[in-house]
Amino acid sequence: MTTQALPREPQQDRSRATRARLLEAAVGCLASVGWAGTTVAVVAERAGVSRGAAQHHFRTREELVTAAVEYGSDVRTARMREHLDGLAGRRPSTLEVLTSLAEMYTSPLFRAALQLWVAAASDEQLRARVVPLEAKVGREAHRLTVEALGADESVPGVRESVQATLDLVRGLGLADLLTDDSARRSRLLRQWAATLEPVLHRSPPPSG
Amino acid sequence: MTTQALPREPQQDRSRATRARLLEAAVGCLASVGWAGTTVAVVAERAGVSRGAAQHHFRTREELVTAAVEYGSDVRTARMREHLDGLAGRRPSTLEVLTSLAEMYTSPLFRAALQLWVAAASDEQLRARVVPLEAKVGREAHRLTVEALGADESVPGVRESVQATLDLVRGLGLADLLTDDSARRSRLLRQWAATLEPVLHRSPPPSG
């Protein structure tokens, strides 16, 4: 079996790389020019891929764009997990976790996802595709946040506080859409970390 | 002066009523069909106003739509203020305030505003118009929330907690865009009220 599969691998690698380039270009395109300007042709050009090759991977922009948001979300989640693992066993502070989450929800990926969600709000066919994606992305963000905070969801109120934290950072993503909201966001996250710690039975990091 | 002004009043009233009909139709149109489908002609038809009359009030859809979101926000704010005044001096509970806010941010007005903000993210000219509007709407929502909660912003952390509450309800508005999120939202707001009360030095309502 391997002898048959081997010669095909370089081509499969190339195909996978082309696909990834298209997905990354689609996230950037959505985030900067919005849903209306994001077509397979425009994304192919941004990615430096021929229109034919792009259409071989994605027949419609609905297909391309939902795949792009899913891919971007997987990459972001993996990167945040790596960052947490890179702390080498040191427990991240509540504020570190909140800051990582806020970075995720003010990134081009969030702007791209927002364009897709808002387009789906007035397009039934797109909505049918986006609702399961939104649920999947939301579940993964929740799981990652629970792990990062070391939250015990069997304690009453903890699950709702983790959910509220995620809704809060989504609201912060929205507040950063048209203007730079970073200074206000930093103050707000410090306060939220202090408020959240007793609910999660976490202690603040040792000062000094 | 009054004798000259009098004969014009019925016409001014009609003109004001036409304008209000157009603004209300524009909010409904944006919320249901989105930015791309919201033109002056479509809104005029929804409002039962001739295209010429509509164009007399609003030359472009940018003008119409920003005026509509501002008008809708003024109406909503006034309605929430009336509701609070209607409590006849009784202090609303934290949860009552949060529930009113969440209603505002899951209403067609929020969906309309979201369509406008997201369209402005990839349209420089529209952004220049929307940024001051977003700031104004945000300031009014903040002022109303401070009043409703009786929050003392000179206490450290209170201002940030009020801001976080507004970012949270905006996040909840987003979470309700594609699916009915009301059951989860109710649980989450109860927990948020309990978390917020000690920060605001408010006591929970007497039980029983």
TrEMBL record, chains A, B:
Query: Is Transmembrane helix one of the keywords?
Result: no
Matching entries from InterPro entries are given as: Homeodomain-like_sf, HTH-type_TetR-like_transc_reg, HTH_TetR
Q: Which PANTHER family match?
A: HTH-TYPE TRANSCRIPTIONAL REGULATOR PKSA, HTH-TYPE TRANSCRIPTIONAL REGULATOR RUTR
Q: Write the protein's name.
A: TetR/AcrR family transcriptional regulator
Record domain HTH tetR-type: where: 16-76
Q: Which residues bind DNA?
A: 39-58
Read off the Pfam families from this record. TetR_N (PF00440)
Domain of life, source organism? Bacteria
UniProt-listed Gene3D superfamilies: Tetracycline Repressor, domain 2
Source organism of this protein record:
Actinomadura rugatobispora
Q: Which UniProt keywords apply?
A: DNA-binding
